[in-house]
Automatic annotation (TrEMBL):
Major place of residence: membrane
Gene3D superfamilies cross-referenced by the UniProt entry: Cation efflux protein transmembrane domain (1.20.1510.10)
Topology term for the membrane: Multi-pass membrane protein
Transmembrane parts of this sequence: 26-44, 64-80, 92-111, 117-137, 157-174, 180-198
Pfam families reported in the protein's UniProt record: Cation_efflux (PF01545)
Alphabetized InterPro entries for the sequence: Cation_efflux_TM, Cation_efflux_TMD_sf
Protein name listed in UniProt: Cation transporter
Residue span, Cation efflux protein transmembrane domain: 27-205
Location relative to the cell: Membrane
Keywords of the record: Membrane, Transmembrane, Transmembrane helix
Length: 210
């Protein structure tokens, strides 16, 4: 998941002059796909009452931010890359806290989400991540950053499968527990990842100031 798939912007910037234009185009496609899926899952999660969809939306947000930062700050100074990473980390952290709040609210209400919306959107999210993974497959043996991008996209499919499992669990049990458990795990990863990004960005800001 994107919470543990942070790109090394310093190394990426150093090698940016040698980036294949086709790879850059694929990063743009991945950015657009992930941003669109974030918006879709956010809306579907709110409509269906699924906290797991909201948690998976955070994952798409984190990936979109990773791709966007990789494309946007290639030629910028370290301090600006660190400030952009701070914004990304704060966004992940904020959404993670929001989903935790949604999980707590779900525990209090005990109203199961709509499983068919969860399943259909989860399948679409899985298809989106697999499609991006196929596009990135040719660069799976590239440098560390390229390998990281591909592996993270591949691993994101596991989060989609977890959402599908939660949908089946809700359908089978008629309770909200499968949805809330998956959402809590995803939110915890987002909070952990956001905090890690913020720590690393603050270190980079300190080193650039020094």
């Amino acid at each position: 998941m994107s919470a543990h798939c942070q790109h090394h912007h310093g190394a990426h910037a150093h090698a940016s002059a040698n980036v294949d234009p086709r790879y850059r185009r694929i990063l743009w496609i991945a950015l657009i796909v992930n941003a669109a899926m974030f918006a879709l899952e956010l809306g579907a999660g709110l409509r269906s009452g699924s906290a797991a969809l909201l948690g998976d939306a955070i994952d798409f947000l984190g990936d979109a931010a990773n791709y966007g930062l990789s494309l946007w700050v290639l030629s910028m100074a370290l301090a600006w890359r660190a400030r952009a990473a701070l914004l990304k980390g704060a966004s992940m952290l904020g959404f993670g806290v929001f989903v935790i709040g949604r999980v707590l609210w779900g525990l209090w209400q005990a109203i199961p989400p709509e499983p068919f919306t969860m399943g259909s959107v989860g399948l679409l999210a899985l298809a989106a991540n697999l499609g991006v993974a196929v596009l990135l497959y040719a660069w799976r043996e590239g440098d560390a950053n390229m390998r990281g991008v591909w592996l993270c996209t591949r691993n994101d499919a596991l989060g989609n499968l977890a959402v599908l499992g939660a949908a089946l669990g809700v359908l089978g049990t008629g309770t909200a527990w499968p949805d809330l458990v998956v959402a809590a795990i995803m939110a915890g990863l987002a909070i952990s990842g956001g905090a890690s990004v913020i720590r690393d960005a603050r270190k980079e800001l300190a080193s650039s100031a020094a």
